[in-house]
Design a protein that fits this description.
The protein has about 140 residues and is α+β, with helices and mostly antiparallel strands. Helices cover about 20% and strands about 20% of the residues. It has 4 helices and 6 strands. Strand 2 and strand 3 form a beta hairpin. The longest helix is centred in the N-terminal third of the chain and has 10 residues. The two termini are about 20 Å apart.
């Protein structure tokens, strides 16, 4: 069984919005991805964290391979694939491959389908909102 989902590299995201536009075009509607800008008092600067459709268990589009948001991300911040397959790029990250550990992004699902890698200050970590309050569409 596969568990499709994302690993979001928060160090790579620079909030260009290409993923949001690609999602909006692919779904003919409201984008199901949001880029949150969260201010860190600890570091006196903003951090950007993409929130993706799989956090609410309702992918915005049907896709084979990589979804439009991941295909258009110029920085490679959105890594999509089978989270349970250690031979897929996101699966290897979630399984602990490499030096960067993956942390689940907030979700109400029984199993996370979105993880993040990269450094996030404690004050930003504590302020991460519920994805259902951020991502439009069907609620969990």
């Amino acid at each position: 069984m596969t568990r499709p989902g994302f690993v979001v590299d928060v160090d790579a995201c620079f909030a260009c919005g290409a993923c949001v536009t690609a999602c909006r075009v692919a779904t003919d509607g409201d984008a199901r991805i949001r880029i949150l800008q969260l201010e860190s008092a600890e570091e006196a600067r903003p951090f950007w964290i993409p929130y993706v459709c799989t956090q609410v268990g309702d992918p915005a589009c049907s896709f084979e391979g990589r979804p439009p948001c991941a295909r258009t991300c110029p920085s490679g911040a959105l890594i999509y694939g089978d989270l349970d397959d250690p031979s897929s790029p996101p699966g290897a990250i979630v399984a602990g491959g490499g030096e960067r550990g993956a942390e689940p992004l907030p979700t109400r699902l029984p199993e996370p389908r979105a993880y993040r890698v990269g450094r996030v200050p404690g004050d930003v970590e504590r302020s991460l909102p519920d994805p259902a309050s951020v991502i439009p569409g069907r609620r969990i």
